[in-house]
Design goal:
By secondary structure, this protein is an alpha/beta fold. It has nine helices and eight strands. It is globular.
């Protein structure tokens, strides 16, 4: 059995959510962690978690969606039933890396981290073109736990994050032919630090690249991880699912 530890299966992207969840279950996915990123999506994931037994929620504000940043909402709902993490949160300098934007993102990132620590919740971190700042922020906190969603940094940085106790999310990118860095990370980082995710609807694995992604594709990602590490896919399923259960309070 598998866990999809990061996806966005919400009505903005899917008009058949019940079918998507059913197909995921048939593919061996037993838990799906749907992550909010702005106020509207946070509200929706809370409702989805209430409606579906296999769905759990993470709430947070993505660094490029801070116009709707509502800290009071997070405080009010962080201990709702089936909210197992604060996320996705983090830093993203891909489109805008001026000083004011960076400061605003870092301030929101820290504020959400401190809320997670206050309530003993793990964080799900987005980091794009910002890996060193991300590391510097998380390193300033003790007892912080969580995952680096869709990890895309170097092997050297991966080792630093796992030394801090963080887990690394591996998604469909690992199946891409040109994904040398991600494959190097998967090969050289112990399986006990890896999580499986889809980031649906984005980043569908080969041979579905370019299509709408779905949690039912988790076994494809697991198969590639098994191939890279030269182990049985059942070991990937067992260990990564165990990792997810230890990090998130399912």
């Amino acid at each position: 059995m598998y866990v999809d530890t990061h996806c966005h299966i919400i009505k903005q992207y899917y008009n058949n959510i019940d079918e998507v969840l059913d197909n995921a279950s048939k593919a061996g996915v037993e838990k799906i962690l749907i992550c909010g990123y702005d106020l509207a999506s946070n509200i929706e994931v809370l409702e989805l978690a209430k409606k579906h037994d296999m769905v759990y929620a993470a709430i947070g504000f993505h660094p490029t969606d801070l116009d709707s940043f509502d800290f009071t909402f997070l405080e009010e709902h962080i201990n709702d039933d089936k909210v197992v993490a604060l996320g996705e949160i983090g830093l993203d300098y891909h489109y805008d890396n001026d000083i004011d934007t960076k400061k605003r993102q870092i301030d929101a990132f820290k504020k959400q981290i401190e809320l997670a620590l206050k309530h003993n919740k793990p964080v799900i971190i987005h980091s794009r073109d910002s890996i060193m700042d991300t590391y510097n922020v998380v390193s300033s906190y003790s007892n912080l736990r969580g995952s680096l969603h869709c990890y895309s940094g170097s092997l050297e940085m991966a080792k630093l994050f796992v030394e801090k106790g963080f887990l690394l999310g591996v998604g469909g990118v690992v199946t891409f032919k040109n994904a040398k860095i991600v494959k190097d990370v998967v090969k050289n980082i112990d399986l006990k630090y890896l999580l499986l995710e889809t980031d649906s609807p984005y980043l569908a694995p080969e041979p579905h690249r370019g299509e709408v992604n779905t949690s039912a594709y988790i076994p494809i990602i697991a198969e590639m991880v098994a191939s890279i590490k030269e182990i049985d896919i059942s070991d990937v399923a067992t260990v990564t699912t165990g990792n997810a259960y230890r990090l998130f309070d399912f």
